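Feature request disguised as a bug: please show the residue count (247) next to PIG-L deacetylase family protein in the output. Example input:
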Amino acid sequence: MTESNSTQLQPMPTDWQRALAVVAHPDDLEYGCSAAMAAWIDEGREIAYVLATRGEAGIDTVAPAECGPLREREQRASAAAVGVSVVEFLDHRDGTIEYGVSLRRDIAAAIRRHRPELVITLNHHTTWDGGVWNTPDHVAVGHATLDAAADAGNRWIFPELTEQGLQPWNGVRWVAVANSKNPTHAVPAEPGLERAVRSLLEHRAYIEALTDEDPETYARRFLTESTRELSARFGGQPAVVFELFNR
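Example output, currently without the count:
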């Protein structure tokens, strides 16, 4: 991200108790917003994670049958590092997630189960800031999450969920998109930054396949640099940034 846009970032809303984070892969939240998760957990809020895949196609040198369970274990440990104990997987196929009714239904079901006021997802735009192309998985899950936040409250969309005992939930007030190229709001990063580093570091197998840099050095450098990129738009303090949509 760049600091060319001088618009100041607003603080994230604080009048909520339950949040649900929905992303495509293990590590998406750790690269995006785990410092915010740690700070929110410290404040007594409830947060659950839902992942569309187990990240089984994410390490070139590890076959999917081995990689999926490995990355699931890393994700559960990573969530625990910031205080999140509920981690669910929807078992869509890594790398080929398709936006559509099936994905919307699965996410709407998760929203009905957890009944959050705040839903969090990852950048749904086709590019990252600077024009770097986003992956189809991120785009599909982000778009589906924005749609499912409304689907979850409509009893006539996916009535089979009601038949399964998942009553409509129209209590989602916001959807916050982490790592968006169009951020509007932010959370101070420093209170949760050390736990965010530990959380990203739990994805050790993934990091070791990604870079020759020492994993802890890599995790600390990445999160320190990324949370400082838009600090000028948030009172000079490191920030976890979101594009916030009201519901």
